[in-house]
Amino acid sequence: MSAPTPAWLTALASRHDVAEHDWFASYTPPEGVERRSAVLMLFGPDPSGGEDVVLTERAHTLRAHPGQVSFPGGGIDPDDDGSVGAALREAEEEVGLDPSGVHVLATFPEVYLSPSQHAVTPVLGWWPRPVPVGVVDRGEVERVLRVPVPRLLDPTNRFTAVFGPYRGPAFEVDDLFVWGFTAMLLSSLFDLAGIAVPWDDTVERPLPDRVMSPWMKQLDEGPTR
Description:
Cofactor: Mn(2+); Mg(2+)
InterPro entries: CoAse, NUDIX_hydrolase-like_dom_sf, NUDIX_hydrolase_dom
Order of helices and strands: HHEEEEHEEEEHEEEHEH
CATH class: Alpha Beta
Shape: globular
Protein name: CoA pyrophosphatase
CATH superfamily: Nucleoside Triphosphate Pyrophosphohydrolase
Keywords: Hydrolase, Magnesium, Manganese, Metal-binding
Pfam family, one: NUDIX
Strand content: 25-35%
Mean pLDDT: 92
Structural class: alpha+beta
């Protein structure tokens, strides 16, 4: 049985002022950006009720962003049908998703990630009839999860992640630590959708080792003698 798109996702997809949101406005790409990517924010009906979202945990052996949680996605190739085509293709390659089962609801303004010099387009999708997904390439992805939205909205699972001068929204559900771009995008979407629950952003937690890149661990340890 096909599940109808929830009202909050329909309302989110129909907004025309996303670019005016503080976070999106703060990360507008500069002119001349050449590296472009897309991510798929795929929501579906949760078997226990409500909705869930597909997230991946990157392989811990990767040099860049090991163990970090992200949406399926990657670089836009010349043969892709734009950002939507890239997001669906990457999701198929990473988690075995059948693109034909996804209803693409909207694409949002590009967000600029200065560390990687990427302009990333978030693609919003609804999965009316979820089928099993999982790790396709262990060299890239450690695990694939469908995380219930109510657990992400739970104020007890929300806090501010801290690393040096960095401060940003974060989530922790069981042993899944979500921070950085993924957490900021989720937090912004929940705000825009009007479903966010007030949480205490003065609660701070440092990044755990398992989500740090090698250079971050060296920086965190300080200079060696």
